[in-house]
C-alpha cells in the first residue's frame, strides 16, 4: 500500500521483477492473479488511456522521438504551451544544456535522441513527465546515466519537485534512496520494508 504523497524506493536484485511491477501498474500486461487498486478502484476496470495518464514514467532508457526537444517534452499534446515546456525543462535541470543546443528547444535530437548524452535524454524524459503533471511518478533507474555530480543535482531538485507527489523509485543508488520516505526490498520470498542502513 502506497499512500498518496509518499515517495517509495523499490530495490532488489536484477531480474527480481521491479520493472515488471511498474509495468503491471500501467497495464502493459495484466496480473495472473490478485488485483491492483488505484484510489480503491481495480485498474482492470479502468480505460487504459485514462489509467496511463495518471503516471509519469521516466525509464532508464527513455523512448524519444526523431523530433525537436520541444516536441519530445510535449509529446502527445496537440497545442503545447511554450512557457510550460520551458518551465518543465528548467525544473528537470535540462535548460542549461538545451540553451547550448544549435536551435535550443527547436533542435532536432535524432532517432531515439542519438544527438544527446544518456543523462540529457533522461532529463528530457523527466521534463516530459513534469509537463504532463501526473499524480504519480515512476522513476525506473532514472539516474543510472548521470555522473555523481549530475545525480546529486537531480536528487536535490527532486526534493522540491516531488514534494506532495506519489513517487515510486526503482533504484540502488544511495543518493536517490535518500529522498525516499520508505524503502521496500523485493525478494523471491516477497516484499519487505528495510532501513537506509541496509543500503550503505
Describe the overall structure.
With 200 residues, this protein is an alpha/beta fold. The chain contains eight helices and eight strands. The strands form two sheets. Strands 4-5-6-1-7-8 form a six-stranded mixed β-sheet, sandwiched between helices. Strands 2-3 form a two-stranded antiparallel ribbon. Helix 4 packs across helix 6. The longest helix has 15 residues, at 118-132. The radius of gyration is 17 Å and the shape is globular. The two termini are 25 Å apart. The relative contact order is 0.20.
Notable characteristics:
17% strand, single chain, globular, 200 residues, six-stranded mixed beta sheet, two-stranded antiparallel ribbon
Largest sheet: 6 strands, mixed
Query: Treating each run of at least 4 consecutive H or I residues as one helix, how many helices?
Result: 8
Strand content: 15-25%
- Helix share, percent: 25-40%
Give me the side-by-side strand order of the main sheet.
4-5-6-1-7-8
- Per DSSP E runs of 2 or more residues, the count of β-strands stands at 8
- Stretches with pLDDT under 50, minimum 5 residues: none
Structural class: alpha/beta
**Chain oligomer state:** single chain
Amino-to-carboxy terminus distance: 25 Å
Whole-number radius of gyration? 17 Å
Order of helices and strands: EHEEHEHHHHEHEHEE
Mean pLDDT: 88
Global shape: globular
Summarize the structure.
By secondary structure, this protein is an alpha/beta fold.
Topology, element by element:
Elements: E1 7-11, H1 18-25, E2 37-38, E3 41-42, H2 48-52, E4 55-58, H3 69-73, H4 82-91, H5 95-100, H6 118-132, E5 136-140, H7 148-161, E6 166-170, H8 174-177, E7 182-187, E8 190-194
Parallel strand pairs: 1-6, 1-7, 4-5, 5-6
Antiparallel strand pairs: 2-3, 7-8
Helix pairs in contact: 4-6
